[in-house]
Design brief:
Layout (H helix, E strand, L loop, with lengths): L13 E6 L14 H9 L5 E2 L4 E2 L5 E6 L7 H13 L6 E6 L5 H12 L3 E5 L19 H9 L4 E4 L6 H10 L2 E3 L6 H8 L2 E7 L21 H9 L5 E8 L10 H21 L2
Parallel strand pairs: 1-4, 1-5, 5-10, 6-7, 6-9, 7-8, 9-10
Antiparallel strand pairs: 2-3
Helix pairs in contact: 1-8, 2-3, 3-4, 7-8
Amino acid sequence: MAFLGSRSAAHPALVLVGVPYDATSTFRSGSRYGPDAIRWASQSIETYSPILRAALDDVAFTDLGNLDVSGRSADEMVAVVRGAIQSQHGQPIPIVLGGEHTISLGGVTAATGRQGTPAVLQLDAHTDLRERYEGAVLSHATVMRRIAEHVGADRIVQLGVRAGTAEEFTYASAALRYHSRGLDVPPPVWEWLAARPVYVTVDIDVLDPAEAPGTGNPEPEGVSGRELLAFVRRLSQLDVVGLDLVEVSPPFDPSGRTAIMAATIIREAILAIALGRHA
């Protein structure tokens, strides 16, 4: 099953790819089922966004299906993601469905090779800035530290963050461009983002668990779906060179509302990015 509105195109502007991987998950695994759940949930929403006044039918995007990452180490998985993105002719913008947050390293490194060094805009409940976690250098809890090493910590903007160690928050305050518990971005930081290519990573746990319970590490006092969707629509103002949505874990949400929210986020992101390209 492909994402709603996807179609074959000789030269797609965007490509969607799933990464069903959760091998480093340490509390509640299940995000390997996320990509297919989001595609399934997309069948319940409309292609048209009445707020953006645009429809997926008008965007040339292709769903490439899921990558084969079963049984691979985190490093191997990242290499597969990077290779799949870099192999696309014409450099379409990748939209990556997770899977756990470790997949973002593959997306960011691929974007770096194609577009120069991007800024990284992270919407997440967790800092994910540990040096190691349970002995692992690369995992869902260390991925932003590895990304910081790749792009430079001062090229990372964190929003929605409300969980992490004292050491992580100290590092974030000292090294990152900006980090905030909410989705507010001071004008100078937004202007800085708008002046360069941006890779966006959205962890579904940035939302309050009341709205998105289907995730591996839910955190109270999250942002609302209304707030997050409004922010995603603002991506039309940025030069987005890649986006991922991670940590949807269907086994922990029998209602399916987390996957439906994720599908709506992806629709709005695709439309916002396409509108930005034609602005």
